[in-house]
TrEMBL record:
SUPFAM superfamilies cross-referenced by the UniProt entry: GroES-like, NAD(P)-binding Rossmann-fold domains
Pfam families, alphabetized: ADH_N_2, ADH_zinc_N
Keyword Repeat assigned: no
SMART domains reported for this sequence: PKS_ER
Lineage of producing organism: Bacteria, Bacillati, Actinomycetota, Actinomycetes, Kitasatosporales
Top-rank lineage group of the source organism: Bacteria
Domain annotation Enoyl reductase (ER): ranges: 14-328
Keywords assigned by UniProt, alphabetized: Oxidoreductase
Name of the featured protein: NADP-dependent oxidoreductase
Coiled coil: none
Length: 332
């Protein structure tokens, strides 16, 4: 089987020369383990942070070792009770074609309920991030005006729609192309959206929300966060989920320069880690699954075919080549 290794730590934007696709023998499962043939791999922005050798909330990737990440696959050999050949599982050993997974690290998923790739997106980690971030961290209330950045991505596209479903009076999104902006309004039902590349974020946000915003869901940081602080109303809340604008930066960002506004407006800015909210999983799957079945929630995936293109998929994600969740599908 083939697997992707990190061979050199990137400085700034990663380039293909710091990675290698290597062939390894397909291992046999030991007691309590299953051998999984991966069908869909996840590439996510947080993986950029794991390429740096710094202490963070997830350990760094090791050089010349397989990278890991979310994956869905089919069990092809089992030495574990409760998991049989043919079962589909979600697990954490992505970036490779075959994985030996401990049964307790594999969650059975049902392809009859949703397409398997959905367990990496709308019904998986990004979906729970959007759900928990809005309900718990931002404390969304009926009538709120909500702004979300990275709005056409896996997390952002769900944030906007869940906000509406939870009674937001107005939802505004920003994204990096006119086509994505159109999708936000026409497909996801955002009230208004703008392309952050077409003009200053602060001006575009003010035009979209002349009376201010109550909630900001941050996926981007930098000038987006500064603009949101400027537009947040008194007692406004911000769920700080990601700051993708600076993941490849070699210098610390200048913005937000207006942080002192937090005082007068009594703003609450709170960081969000999805893993603190796994206790919401059941409620999340029930509610989001229901919205999907009722056609009230829409999602997109951008699928890249083939393990050999997994790195390009990851690099493309950082450049905004995805609409919705970026997935690597392994055709066999
Ligand atoms: P997305 O599907 O949103 O993909 C990333 C998107 O970021 C790209 O499509 C691109 O869209 C946008 N982007 C890239 N560079 C910039 C930039 N300089 N300025 C503005 N937008 C940019 O990824 P996810 O939905 O998986 O993740 C979204 C955010 O949520 C990330 O910041 C991620 O780190 C964070 N996250 C945090 C979690 C947590 O537990 N805290 C869990 C999951 C995700 P465009 O074309 O619009 O530029």
């Amino acid at each position: 089987g083939r697997e992707w290794h990190l061979t050199a730590r990137p400085k700034g934007w990663p380039t293909p020369d710091g990675f290698a696709l290597r062939e390894t023998e397909i291992p046999a499962p030991g007691p309590g383990e299953v051998l999984v043939r991966n069908l869909h791999l996840s590439v996510d922005p947080y993986m950029r942070g794991r390429m740096n050798d710094v202490k963070s909330y997830v350990p760094p990737f090791q050089l010349d070792q397989p990278m890991d990440g979310g994956a869905v696959g089919v069990v092809i050999a089992s030495e574990a009770e409760g998991l049989a050949v043919g079962d589909h599982v979600l697990h954490g050993l992505g970036w490779r074609e075959y994985a030996v997974v401990k049964a307790e690290h594999a969650a059975r998923v049902d392809p009859g309920v949703a397409p398997l790739s959905a367990y990496l997106g709308v019904l998986g980690m990004p979906g729970l991030t959007a759900y928990a971030g809005l309900l718990r961290v931002a404390g969304i209330k009926e009538g709120d005006v909500v702004f979300v950045s990275g709005a056409a991505g896996a997390v952002g596209s769900l944030v906007g729609q869940i906000a509406k479903l939870k009674g937001a009076s107005r939802v505004i999104g920003s994204a990096g192309s006119d086509e994505k902006v159109k999708t936000l309004v026409e497909e996801y039902g955002f009230d208004s959206a703008f392309n952050y590349k077409s003009g200053p974020v602060a001006e575009q946000l003010k035009a979209a929300a002349p009376d201010g915003i109550d909630v900001y869901f941050d996926n981007v940081g930098g000038d987006h966060l500064e603009a949101a602080i400027g537009s947040l109303n008194v007692h406004g809340r911000a769920a700080i989920c990601g700051m993708i604008a600076q993941y490849n930066a070699t210098e610390p960002p200048a913005a937000p320069r207006n942080l002192a506004l937090v005082i007068g407006k009594r703003l609450r800015l709170e960081g969000l880690l999805v893993r603190d909210h796994f206790d919401l999983q059941e409620q999340f799957v029930t509610e989001v699954g229901g919205w999907l079945r009722e056609g009230k929630l829409h999602y997109r995936e951008t699928a890249v075919e083939g393990i050999e293109n997994a790195l390009d998929a990851f690099l493309g994600l950082l450049r905004g080549q995805n609409s919705g969740k970026m997935i690597v599908s392994l055709a066999h």
